[in-house]
Amino acid sequence: MPRRIESLLIPGPAGKLEALLEEPEDAAPREAALVCHPHPQHGGTMHNKVVYRIARAMRRAGCVVLRFNYRGVNLSEGKYDDGVGETEDARAALAFLRGRYPNLPFSMAGFSFGSRIILRLGCEIPGARQLVAVGFPAAMPKSAGLGECTVLRVFIISRNDEFCPLPAMEEYFASLPEPKRLIWIEAEDHFFAGALDELEAKMVQIAMPLKSLHAIWSINSGKLRQFERLTNEALLHSLEPGQPGSLKARPDGTLLDGHHRVEVLRARGVNVDVLPREIVHKSTLEGE
Question: Which CATH number fits the domain that encloses residue 156?
Answer without folding.
Answer: 3.40.50.1820
